[in-house]
Amino acid sequence: MLQLPNSQAENMGCSDVGYKQPDIILLNEKQWTYVQNRYNLTPRERQIAELVCKGLRNGNIAKYLCIKPGTVKTHMRNIYRKVHVKSKIAMLLRFVTDSRDLSDSFV
Questions:
Q1: pTM to 2 decimals?
Q2: Which of 36, 37, 70, 82 could form a disulfide with 46, with the two C-beta atoms 3.0–4.6 Å apart?
Q3: Are 61 and 51 in contact (CB under 8 A)?
Q4: CATH top class, domain 6-16+23-105
Q5: Could you give the C-alpha distances from 75 to 19, 100, 103, 107, in angstroms and in order?
Q6: Rounded to whole angstroms, how far apart are CA atoms 76 and 44?
């Protein structure tokens, strides 16, 4: 699972996002790997998708990753295209549904 320690952002020279990181875990590492492979996401797209699913907005993701908000927007557009969705909530629901199906197959 992607960890977001404040020290990493500070070491990268990025500004502090300014709030406590949400402790939301919707998918575990195995499920994220499945989603990444299923939709052919790049490592950066997966990283951004994980941050979105943790509840971060594009601007906060950009600050954390030391990239421009437009770059985050471009990655999101590419993720939507690959996953065949039109919104963040639809993306999140698709990932949770797909990974639930994965979990059910191993029971």
A1: 0.76
A2: 36
A3: yes
A4: mainly alpha
A5: 24, 25, 27, 34
A6: 10
